[in-house]
Every structure is written in structure tokens, then in C-alpha cells.
Specification:
The structure holds two protein chains of two kinds. Chain A is an all-alpha fold. Chain A contains 15 helices and two strands. Chain B starts with 7 loop residues before the first strand and ends in an 11-residue tail after the last helix. Classes of the chains: A mainly alpha, B alpha/beta.
């Protein structure tokens, strides 16, 4: 096997292994509870990918619904992956997303009479700015006083959630007394759907207005491409990676570690904020109480990890998570299995990544050992030596 | 000889790692009560052989006899039971534990059901240290001890486990010259009390000083068995490298030009805030190598960091030509023409997971040569640059996309040297430029440093190896406790330099 293939296979073993693990354990859970795991997964596949539908679902509609979920996952996935490259763990994508959606809604409501060419950029940039602020705070705290970003980003998630509650329940954006949603944003602040919202136009057997896929998809894909470009083709991306791999070496090379940390968080927050703004501008058009229990920013962590922090990987992992999310409803209606199984599967995937089962299995098998991973100047077994030395060899 | 019982007798040891034949029918034998040196360049298979002896992994073929009996060593536990102990190059100690706790770890004497018995532990350690003449306070916190004493604790730990055959892996790599001397005294005492010692090293002077016999390895094979008294440095070096090696640096007298860098009375603190530099002044001229000699920890590292822009001064100033560069950070220093080879190549000189190509622009990723508008990387130019460096500096690698981590120490160092010299600097700061690299690479790097000098670069060299400083430098500044105590000619006697380095001796006329 040429080294490149081996490296690729080694790299992909983790994500694929984790997904397989989750589905096997998920099937066991379904089986133990007396249902048929095959029909459960058939429902998921139909609902998620529009493949193999038996109950008359429209495949195109299912795919459309999946893509609506995929869009914010890609953007927030990037927002987790970028800091990850700099050695930072951004758990705050959710809070940043909410900040972005609030800013988008506020601007979209306040200036609801402006025409689209002005208002749409305003709400999207406003959302990005709000997200950037929300992530910038932990960034500055990390860079200046060394506060751990995991703690600060988590705390800011709560702040964002309660701020949202305040805004739409009794606050300035509330639609009316007794409601828990905001006023709608102006028409000019809305992202167009990919297909014209025209009930008389029939596309693939359905009126085109039911397809909710919106132009945010293009923005999300552009965000993923921008992420890859930034990381691999720019001096700044180079510095992000250098800081993430060795702060000391980066500092000796003249890279300002503080500046890199702050900028990375600002950019990441802008991506998350963009995701929030896109949700408002493209899907919901107002803030609602469903955002209280939104988990996109948390799913993004799994997406970034599963996607190995690469743009293509993030898009693929987003498709998987979006399909799970979207397929849950069909699974529930077709196979009669609670869509909460999807949450179990997502958790199992994340758990498997965190516990590194795949790595453990690979280490246990002699074929998994990669000679190229060991520096030739050391005895090729230096890696093994440290393992052997950490195992308690002298307990006799 | 055949009727003499050998302490260790390894016969026909072969160990194949994927892609590397680490040991190829190696025969290795050690007589009881001798200090046996195992020498060879990095990657020659020394450590593999010793790890096999210590049971860290099984050989593919071959047999091991310990004290005349065939032994099956399935793991370190078996090795320890056979009286084999190993002191690793990187200590396996817990800094927050006391010396006693570290030594006892895993074999703690207990009182009652499960309580650590401090009294018994202390007695046991005192007994051991007294028997072997190893002064060591069992109650001291390990992390507070100097490296030499930490190593001593490692040795005591091994002795406590009943070792009769001690394997010391590169034990002097981390020690100061004084600590090395003390270690050698300890080793001789251990041999006197009946222990057998296997001494792994690539420092030939030390090997000649301490060992009785020498086994030389090269590329997985034993290439020579030598008796120390009947050999010399050149012979061992030639065996190790497989060709004639120039141990002396071949250079013409310097032709120093104008003063490039002027250091005026600078002071600076260590990371802990303790003064490290207490008023250092010197001038550095074009086309000369100024070597800084001194026992490690006397301010050399901090001096280099100040000049490279990674440490702030608390006083004084640095001039590059007419420009005051005292407050420059690392990036602006580089831009101004000051190149820096840092002493810790794995920690600060390279990003180990980066490829050679990526490492070749570290610190210059925003320069117009490698980026448009300080932003978009010129990937083609970077690749060309990296290929050129690989060729020009003889970096042994299959491709420029190989991660620095996967290069040998010597080649890693060459990547740094190439990067820094390749930028055509006015001043080259070289801190420990050949630490821990093999002889071939040392020879190469020395030649390049001299070549750099001959092309008019001002070179400031810091090295813990006095030999290196003496053979490369055109002037030698001796540092002691944060000051330059004297500036000596390159032919100054070793004894005089040694005296100055430890705070003795009178400075020469006109020295700062």
C-alpha cells in the first residue's frame, strides 16, 4: 500500500468507524426495545436522503428538508474547526449563532422597509459582527488573561440563550403579549429560496414553494471554501496552524500568538453568527422559542471532529447530521420509532470519537501500526517504548 | 576469554521494524565489572538493542544470555528480575514527589495495611546511597533538584530494584561538564562495588574517558569491537560514520570587517523574573565568529533570545548598524537581517507536524518572497525554495512534503540551518547548532557556519561544547553568571577557559 493511501485510510478509519459504531449500537438499542432496526434505518435513509422511500414520500422534498438542516451545520462546523486548528476549543458556536440570529432579527425588524440589496447584506453582516463579538470576548480573555476558552464560551452560550428569552418574551422584539416569538423581519431581509416560491409551478410533482432550500446553501458552501482557502493558502492560516501545533515555535518565528488567537476567534464567531443570520433570513424569518432548544452549535462540534477539521469533511459530516435530523420525523411516522433515536445516534458518534474506540482497536491490531509515523532517527520502537514505560512494568 | 562468564551475551540479535532492519545479526557481549560503551550515530540501532535487552520488545531472532544462562526476557519485569536496570535518557520521575517517593514508586514499603512507611523508605535509601557513595537527600522535592541529582536519583532507583547490570542511555546529554565529571566518579564507584555498566553515547571523548571496551554500531550492525586503551577518537568516528571524518574544523583565519551588531550593557530576566543578564556588552563584526563559552544556565540562552527578539531587555540596548533594534520582536528582527538558530530545535525551531516545505518559511510566511500582500501564500515559490534548500543543505528526505517529525535529528537541524542561512542574514545567531545531531551532520553544519562567515556574515555562536566553541570561533567570550567575564583568543588554553567559566581567573586586558 503506498503511504498516501495508508495515511488516507488511517485518517478515514476514525470517522467511518465512529459512525458504524453508533449505528450498530443504535440498532441494538432499537432491537432490545422490540422494534425492527432495519425499518428504523430505512425510515432514516428515506427521510434523510430520499432513498428507498416506501410510503409515498417525495424524495426531492426529503433532500430539500435535509439541506435546510445542513446549511447552518456547515457554517458552524467551520466555526468550531478553525479555532481547533489554532489549538482552541470553541464550544460556543451555539451562543454565537444565537447572537447572530438576534442581531439579524433586530436589524431586519428595525429597518424592515429597506430594499433587499441594502437590507440583506446588513442583516448578514450584522449577524456576523454579533457572532464575532460573542466569540471575540473569549478570544480576548484567552489571549490577555489566559481564561480558558472552553469555560468562557460555554458561559456565553447561556448568556445568549437568556438574552434571546428576554428579547422575545416581554422584551423589545416580542410580537405581542403572550407570544414567545419576535416580529417578522422585513421582506428585504429574507434570503430567496433556490426555487421560486410559486404555488403554480410544479417541480418533481410538488408545488415549488414547498421546497425550502434557500440560497444560504451557496453562502455555506462558500464559507467552507473560504475556510479551506484561509487555512491552507494564506499566511494567516499558516500562522493559525503553527500556533495550534506549537505555540513556542510560532512565537520564536515572530508570530503573535495573542493576535492569532483573537483573530481566529473573531473569524470563527463571524461564521457562527452568519449561520444564525442565515437561519433567520432564510428559514424562520423571525425569532421563535424553538431557538431555546436549538442544538446546531453543539452538533457543530461533532461535525468538526467527524469531518477531521477539513472543509470537505465538514460538508460531508454536516450532510450526515442534517440527514439524521431530517430523517428522524420520517422514521417516527413510517417505522413508529421515536425520532429521539437520532439524538442517541448523534451522541454515540460523538462518544465514539471522544473515546477513540477506533484508535484503540487499531492499536490493538498489529497491522494498524504505521512505521512511517515513527521517526527514523529514534529506534523505530521509541513510540512503543513510551507506551511500555507508561504501563506499570515494575509493580512486582 | 571463552571460559570467562559474560555478564551479558547477546548473540545474533535481529529486529526488523517495518521498513527498517534495526538490528541485523548483532553480537554484543559485556564482561562483568566493566564499563562497556555502545556507540553509534542516531539510528544505528543502539537503543533498539538495549530495549531488547531490557525486554521492551522481543527480538525476531537471536538469543540472550545473562551471567552465562540463557534468558527469556519477555518484559521489563523479567529484565529487572535478572538484575538489569535502565536509566533512560529522559527521566521517568515525578517532579512533585520527593526523592524518596520517586525511588520507592511501585515498590513502596508499607506500614499497616496500606500506609507509605516514610521511616523505612528513608532508611533504605540512606543505606543504598551510603553504600555507593551517592549523596542524595531523600526528602528533597525532585523538581527542585538540578538535572545531575535527578539523574542520580534515577540511578538509585534502579539500584533499589536490585540491578547489577545498568544500562545508561546517553546519560551525559543533559549534564554540565561538572555534573558529567561527578557522574563518572559515581560510575567508577559502582563498578568497584561489582556492578556492570553499559554506557550508550555518541560523545567520543567521554567514551574514551570512562569505558573499558567499546562496541561500535552502524546501520543496525556491529562494525567493531574495540578496547578503549588501544583506540582513539578518529578510529571510532571513522567506524561510526563509515568514512573518514574531519573532527577538526578546517578554516582560514578570519578577515573581520566593520562592526555589524553592537550590544551595550544589556540586562534581562529569566522567565521566572530572576536576573539572567547583568550588563552584557560586546561587538560583533562582519566575517567573524564570536563564540560564547560558558556552563549552561549562565545567561547564554537569554542573551540569544534577547538578540533574536523573543525576550525583552530590562536595560541596555542593541544596535544593528546604526539602527536601535532593542525593542524589535522576532519578526522585525528577521526582517532586519538577524537569523536565529534556536537551541531547542524540536520545541522552538520547528513545527514538527509541518512539512519541510512549511517549516522552510517559518517566520517568513509574510515576506514578499513567499506571499502576496502578506496574505496569500505563493505555494509554487515555497516549494521551489524548499527544494533548493533540501538540495543545497543535503537534507536527506524522500520529499519536501515529509513532516519534520519524521526526519532524523541531524536532518531536522539542517532544515533550520538551511532556513536561517538561506535568508542571507547580516547576523546569524546560532545556539547549540549541533546539539544531539550525528557526526556527519555536525561536520556539515560546522562547514556551513564557517562558509557563512567567509561570505561576510557576523556569527554569534553559543555552545555547551567547549570543543565546538574553540574550534569554530575567531574570538571567545566567556560568560559567567550573566556577565561576559573575558574575551579570549581562539587558541586560549582549555584550562584557562574552564577556570573563567566557573568564575575563576582574571580577565584579559581590554575585555568587557
Amino acid at each position: 500500500m503506498p503511504p498516501i493511501v495508508r495515511r488516507l485510510a488511517g485518517g478515514l478509519a476514525m470517522p467511518f468507524g465512529s459512525v458504524v459504531f453508533a449505528f450498530v449500537v443504535g440498532a441494538l438499542i432499537v432491537g432490545v426495545t422490540g422494534a425492527n432496526p432495519f425499518s428504523a434505518y430505512a425510515g432514516l435513509i428515506c427521510g434523510g436522503l430520499g432513498i428507498g422511500c416506501t410510503q409515498g414520500e417525495n424524495p426531492a422534498l426529503e433532500i430539500s428538508n435535509t439541506i435546510v438542516f445542513v446549511i447552518p451545520l456547515i457554517t458552524t462546523g467551520v466555526a468550531v474547526a478553525l479555532p481547533f486548528r489554532a489549538g482552541l476549543f470553541n464550544i460556543g458556536a451555539e451562543g454565537q449563532l444565537l447572537a447572530g440570529s438576534m442581531a439579524c432579527a433586530a436589524i431586519g425588524i428595525k429597518f424592515n422597509t429597506l430594499p433587499s440589496p441594502i437590507l440583506l447584506p446588513m442583516v448578514l453582516l450584522g449577524g456576523m459582527a454579533a457572532g464575532a463579538v460573542w466569540a471575540g470576548i473569549p478570544g480576548v480573555l484567552k489571549a490577555v488573561v489566559g481564561a480558558h476558552e472552553v469555560v468562557t464560551t460555554i458561559m456565553l452560550n447561556y448568556v445568549a440563550q437568556w438574552l434571546l428569552r428576554f428579547l422575545i418574551i416581554g422584551g423589545p422584539l416580542q410580537l405581542g403579549p403572550g407570544t414567545s416569538k419576535s416580529l417578522p423581519i422585513g421582506d428585504g431581509a429574507r434570503l430567496a429560496t433556490l426555487l421560486p416560491a410559486d404555488n403554480s409551478l410544479i417541480v418533481l410533482g410538488l408545488p415549488s414553494s414547498v421546497f425550502r432550500v434557500h440560497t444560504g446553501l451557496l453562502i455555506a458552501l462558500a464559507a467552507a471554501a473560504l475556510f479551506a482557502f484561509l487555512l491552507w493558502r494564506t499566511s494567516f492560516g499558516y500562522e493559525i496552524r503553527a500556533v495550534g501545533q506549537s505555540q513556542k515555535a510560532a512565537r520564536y518565528a515572530g508570530v503573535s500568538v495573542r493576535r492569532t488567537i483573537i483573530l481566529t476567534m473573531l473569524i470563527a464567531g463571524a461564521f457562527s453568527g452568519l449561520a444564525g443570520a442565515i437561519q433567520i433570513a432564510g428559514v424562520d424569518h423571525n425569532l421563535t422559542d424553538k431557538y431555546f432548544s436549538d442544538t446546531t452549535g453543539f452538533d457543530a462540534i461533532a461535525v468538526a471532529l467527524l469531518g477531521l477539521g477539513s472543509a470537505v469533511g465538514i460538508v460531508l459530516a454536516s450532510v450526515l447530521f442534517g440527514a439524521l435530523h431530517s430523517g428522524g420525523a420520517i422514521m417516527q411516522s413510517d417505522a413508529g420509532i421515536s425520532s429521539n433515536l437520532v439524538l442517541v445516534l448523534q451522541a454515540l458518534i460523538l462518544f465514539s470519537i471522544a473515546a477513540n474506540f477506533v484508535g484503540a482497536i487499531r492499536r490493538g491490531l498489529p497491522i494498524g501500526r504505521k512505521p512511517s509515523a515513527l521517526p527514523p532517527e529514534l529506534p523505530p520502537a521509541a513510540g512503543l517504548m513510551s507506551e511500555a514505560a507508561t504501563a506499570p512494568p515494575e509493580t512486582a | 576469554m571463552s571460559d570467562e562468564q559474560l555478564a551479558v551475551d547477546m548473540r545474533g540479535i535481529t529486529k526488523q521494524f517495518p521498513g527498517v532492519l534495526a538490528n541485523n545479526h548483532v553480537d554484543f557481549s559485556v564482561r562483568p565489572g566493566e564499563i562497556h560503551a555502545l556507540v553509534g550515530e542516531n539510528g544505528a540501532g543502539k537503543s533498539t538493542l538495549m530495549n531488547i535487552l531490557y525486554g521492551l520488545f522481543p527480538p525476531d531472532s537471536g538469543e540472550i544470555h545473562i551471567n552465562g544462562k540463557q534468558a527469556h526476557i519477555g518484559g521489563p519485569r523479567d529484565a529487572i528480575a535478572l538484575g538489569i536496570g535502565m536509566v533512560h535518557q529522559h527521566f521517568m520521575l515525578i517532579p512533585v514527589f520527593s526523592v524518596g517517593e520517586n525511588i520507592m514508586l511501585g515498590r513502596e514499603p508499607v506500614a499497616g495495611p496500606d500506609f507509605y512507611d516514610h521511616a523505612r523508605a528513608r532508611t533504605a535509601i540512606n543505606e543504598l546511597t551510603k553504600r555507593y557513595g551517592l549523596a542524595l537527600n531523600p526528602d528533597a522535592r525532585m523538581g527542585d533538584l538540578p538535572v545531575g541529582l535527578q539523574q542520580r536519583a534515577e540511578i538509585v532507583k534502579v539500584l533499589y530494584r536490585g540491578a547489577n547490570i545498568l544500562i545508561l542511555d546517553e546519560p551525559t546529554g543533559v549534564l554540565t561538564p561538572q555534573e558529567t565529571k561527578e557522574l563518572f566518579v559515581v560510575l567508577r564507584d559502582l563498578v568497584k562495588s561489582g556492578k556492570t555498566i553499559i554506557f550508550i553515547s555518541h560523545k567520543l571523548k567521554e567514551v574514551l574517558e570512562i569505558s573499558d571496551r567499546i562496541t561500535v554500531m552502524r546501520r543496525g550492525k556491529v562494525v567493531g569491537h574495540l578496547t578503549t586503551k588501544q583506540t582513539n577518537e578518529e578510529e571510532i568516528a571513522t567506524m561510526m560514520v563509515g568514512r573518514e571524518v574531519l573532527l577538526r574544523v578546517d578554516k582560514k583565519p578570519a578577515t573581520p570587517g566593520a562592526v555589524v551588531m553592537r550590544v551595550e550593557n544589556i540586562s534581562a530576566n529569566t522567565d521566572r523574573g530572576v536576573p539572567a543578564l547583568k550588563g552584557v556588552s560586546f561587538e560583533l563584526r562582519q566575517g567573524e565568529i564570536l563564540g560564547i563559552a560558558g556552563v549552561e544556565g549562565n545567561g547564554q540562552s537569554e542573551l540569544m533570545e534577547v538578540l533574536a527578539g523573543t525576550r525583552q531587555v530590562t536595560g541596555g540596548r542593541v544596535l544593528l548598524g546604526d539602527r536601535d533594534i532593542t525593542t524589535y520582536d522576532a519578526r522585525t528582527e528577521r526582517g532586519a537581517g538577524v537569523a536565529f538558530i534556536p537551541e531547542d530545535r524540536r520545541g522552538t525551531g520547528l513545527v514538527l507536524s509541518f512539512s519541510i516545505a512549511e517549516n522552510s518559511i517559518l517566520g517568513r510566511e509574510r515576506s514578499p518572497t513567499f506571499s502576496w500582500n502578506e496574505f496569500v501564500l505563493k505555494l509554487v515559490a515555497i516549494k521551489e525554495w524548499a527544494r533548493r534548500l533540501v538540495k543545497e543543505f543535503d537534507i536527506r528526505t524522500p520529499s519536501i512534503e515529509v513532516a519534520a517529525r519524521n526526519l532524523s535529528g541531524g536532518n531536522q537541524q539542517k532544515v533550520i540551518v538551511a532556513r536561517e542561512m538561506g535568508s542571507k542574514p547580516k547576523v546569524l545567531l546560532a545556539a547549540q547548532p549541533t546539539r544531539g545531531v550525528d557526526i556527519g551532520a555536525i561536520e556539515f553544519i560546522h562547514r556551513r557556519i564557517v562558509q557563512e562567515r567567509d561570505e561576510g556574515t557576523a556569527v554569534l555562536l553559543v555552545s555547551a561544547e567547549l570543543d565546538e566553541v574553540r574550534s569554530l570561533s575567531d574570538r571567545i567570550a566567556v560568560m559567567y553568571e550573566g556577565r561576559i567575564v573575558s574575551i579570549e583568543p581562539p587558541d586560549a588554553a582549555e584550562e584557562r577557559l574552564g577556570l573563567l567559566m566557573t568564575g575563576g581567573g582574571a580577565p584579559r586586558e581590554g575585555a568587557a
